[in-house]
DNA sequence: AATGAATGAGGCTTCATTCAT
DNA sequence: CATGAATGAAGCCTCATTCAT
């Protein structure tokens, strides 16, 4: 209204955003520890030390909160993984970094990863149909498919269906997450990472030429 | 079990079992079409054309019904897949038949497969902990791990972690199921089967010997 | 299923109907005493001495309960008033009996009448639009308009707009109800009835012929 | 009130009054479009482009705001109708002008009229009793009764109960409003006005003397 | 004087479970 | 054995009101 100082609107927005972020974070915690179905607004509010109504005040409803959580986690994951992948010139390296990055994200953002899986599996339309069905995977699958197509075009990869391979890679990574959820620290993510890299390297690489030497660029 | 006239108790048991089986079947239908969260006893009872109380009468509670569904489907799947796998002498063929059988099961028992996934993801303890977490996978994983160990011992497979490979195989098969749920008939299960067989053949096979000929036993 | 005795279905229906009727009656009582807006399911259930869930069990939701109340009262009112009206051959007598019957209904079915008015005024769509707006009056207005058309055709009534007269008659009767709601027994319904009969007789009758004698058929 | 610089208190009062008037106006708009039950403070504040708290600041509570709306509209209506009525010397003309003025007010102040009806029907005490029941009508009814008494005393009107006639006139005018709310412009207010004037002229006038000529002084 | 944030009560609905018949 | 009826908890949402800034 006056000048110089930050406008009220901005200050409002700042506090508003802080609250929203806090609530989103608590939602992630609760969803990851109690599961999507048990993640009631009451539980989330309790965790945040606020009244239930506060959530309704800052979010249009539970749906918006969940959507926000989803967006938050997806954005975080994409930022953590994709840029580093794209820095790799070769398809084989891209695949390796994608797998390594994805599994590393599970380690650094455990609750986020779990929450993502929970929402994925738990969020339904009122008719019971999944809101995030396989269609939501498409962007990620596209990303992988492009890597595979590049590798095949450049002769680095053998012939296979890029789509099915992409589905398998994503599924395998999710499988690691499921293991991690159950067994916690007993699952050595670095080992899982190495094994999956090897697995999909072997699965995609061209059959060894007769005079081939070392097979793996790195273990 | 076979003779016509049995004691009342047995006849009771027979009817009892028929009722239970009917309810379990309806539960599978409802869970697969409406999702776990929406699968209320009322919906299942309506589908079965019976009263809600009947379910409570035949099952200790919803949990027991769901557990029964789970057992039923797991048993069906095991019967459909495992015997044929064990008929194969070689580890490589065992793996191939396991994958083929598992994906074929998705095709022949769609609702069962979906229900299994729904229960897997949806069933929780009152504290929100998954009832069927990765631990429930262990029997299946053991089965696969044994195949891999056999193959490695017999020199058919390269060196890799049997456990991680087992997790990857199961996850990849589940990935096909998720695709199938979303895209239905547009997902060609036979193609998926072939691709996964190829994928894991390549992933497990020893690096091609210099003078090896055909790599795939079957296309 | 057997024979002779009433089928289970019927017995069920009987008890079912009794409960529904009880709940509808309690809803009428609560709506008439506390007003539509305050007529919560909790209050109605408390009055009926049952749990809130019972209402949800017997009715699809609050909407269906209210609709049932509305239908119940409308049907009662129609049965109480219309047949006697149609027994009258002359339009003038029809009008008189209609007014007398409508006001008598207020006396014999006070809570019903009040509940009807409350629902009429209070029930809204989620967007705030009245569910029972003037359109719902049309059947009743038609009935009155036909009386007026008959009277004009037979020369008993003077020239006027049947529609506007019909609206005025209905409104005047509702006005008596509003008075009754506020002042209770202090409003003499018989007197109100006589006055309205006179009023609308005078309003509809042809200008007195020069040699006219008695004006009212009944005082 | 007129001079430019006044004490702070007065200037405050001026702004205060402006704010209150603005809020009252917005309340009228919202009530008339969304209905009383849906007219939340949030909606009214949004319409006014202010914060919800402002309303609480300027009004003791929602009740006071509504009461203010009621007073505002009643005052407007009284100012629009009563003075012109009182200019008429004869009772018959007074009645005519009262009806004409009241219906004209519906045309010129649609939202006000609707809001008035909504408040009338919707506002309740915490116990569910109407706040504005028929008692609130008394001033208006008195005004009409005085007209009728005058007309009867001066021999212009026939014998009838002034009170019941007054109730009928008010009810009939309200009936026109209800029609207008539902059917909007399709209700010709001028026609409604003429018909009601005729109706109540006929209803109140002395039976035609044997040698009388024209019945209506004016249409 | 105004605001946005927070509260807490209350409403409707769904649902697994219990129980008398 | 089976049923329909009833329960009570829990969930999400709306809203008038209060309060610190």
TrEMBL record, chains A, B, C, D:
Residues 17-77 form the HTH tetR-type domain. It comes from the Bacteria. GO terms for molecular function: DNA-binding transcription factor activity; transcription cis-regulatory region binding. It holds the Pfam family TetR_N. PROSITE patterns: HTH_TETR_1, HTH_TETR_2. The keyword Transmembrane does not apply. Keywords: DNA-binding, Transcription, Transcription regulation. Residues 40-59 bind DNA. The lineage of its organism: Bacteria, Pseudomonadati, Myxococcota, Myxococcia, Myxococcales. This is HTH tetR-type domain-containing protein. InterPro entries: DNA-bd_HTH_TetR-type_CS (IPR023772), Homeodomain-like_sf (IPR009057), HTH-type_TetR-like_transc_reg (IPR050109), HTH_TetR (IPR001647), Tet_transcr_reg_TetR-rel_C_sf (IPR036271).
């Amino acid at each position: 209204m006056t000048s110089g100082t930050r406008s009220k609107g901005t200050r409002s927005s700042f506090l508003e955003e802080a609250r929203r972020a806090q609530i989103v974070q608590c939602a992630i915690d609760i969803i990851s520890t109690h599961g999507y179905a048990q993640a009631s607004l009451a539980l989330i509010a309790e965790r945040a030390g606020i009244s239930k109504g506060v959530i309704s005040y800052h979010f249009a409803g539970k749906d918006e909160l969940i959507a926000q959580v989803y967006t938050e986690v997806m954005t975080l994951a994409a930022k953590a993984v994709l840029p580093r992948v794209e820095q790799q010139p070769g398809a084989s390296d891209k695949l390796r970094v994608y797998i390594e990055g994805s599994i590393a994200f599970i380690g650094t953002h455990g609750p986020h990863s779990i929450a993502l899986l929970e929402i994925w599996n738990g969020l339904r339309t009122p008719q019971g149909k999944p809101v995030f069905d396989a269609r939501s995977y498409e962007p990620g699958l596209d990303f992988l498919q492009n890597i595979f197509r590049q590798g095949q075009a450049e002769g680095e990869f053998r012939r296979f269906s890029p789509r099915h391979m992409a589905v398998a890679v994503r599924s395998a990574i999710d499988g690691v997450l499921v293991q991690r959820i159950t067994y916690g620290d007993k699952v050595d993510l670095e080992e899982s990472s190495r094994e999956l890299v090897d697995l999909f390297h072997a699965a995609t690489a061209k059959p060894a030429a007769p005079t081939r030497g070392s097979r793996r660029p790195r273990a």
